[in-house]
Predict the structure.
Amino acid sequence: MQALLIVDIQNDFCPGGALAVPDGDSIIPVTNKLIDHFNIIIQTQDWHPAGHSSFASSHPGKNPYDTIEMDYGLQVLWPDHCVQGTTGAEFHPSLNTQKTQVIIRKGFRKEIDSYSTFFENDQKTTTGLTGYLKQRGITDLFVVGLATDFCVKWSVLDGIDEGFSMHIVKNAVRGIDIEGSVENAWTEIEKKGAHIITSEDI
Ligand code: VGL
Ligand code: ZN
């Protein structure tokens, strides 16, 4: 059983947003076309409280894209983004959200960030997605969205560890790209055994 996982297509990750992914909104038309081909659609929504620990503004003297050592390891610090209840946290208005059956919100605990749709950044705290997918008999996840080098990458890697067959649609993802992070992401994704496909293959 197959499902489409749409990662973080939110205003703040699109041009004009607080943490804009270059060209981020260009994946929306192809994502909307893919939605027609699936019966099960899952979306994720980055959903931070104000003052979240992943925001550079929460750490005096730090700037966006600096890194900091957290209890759970190295964390990149971001501009304030996807704050709960703000326009920036809303799904992009051009994205068709009508068929979406479940929305996984992540990053809602102040002290811990969450890139992956399966686990928070401590790699232990679960979002519950595995249980949802298994109970519905879903075996194959097709992943699109933002950003290739963070939330998309970690979702794909964790999905494989959780026993799912992961397919990443390469013309329906875009990355932030910090010091080669997009290229590294593709290498890791490939090495882990994800299927790298295009929307034409579906
Ligand atoms: C993301 C950085 C911070 C993402 C979310 O969706 O890839 N990146 N929060
Ligand atoms: Zn975030």
Notes: Residues 46, 48, 54, 78, 81-82, 107 surround zinc ion (ligand 2) (CB under 6 Å). The helical segments are 28-35, 129-135, 148-161, 181-192. DSSP finds four helices and eight strands in the chain.
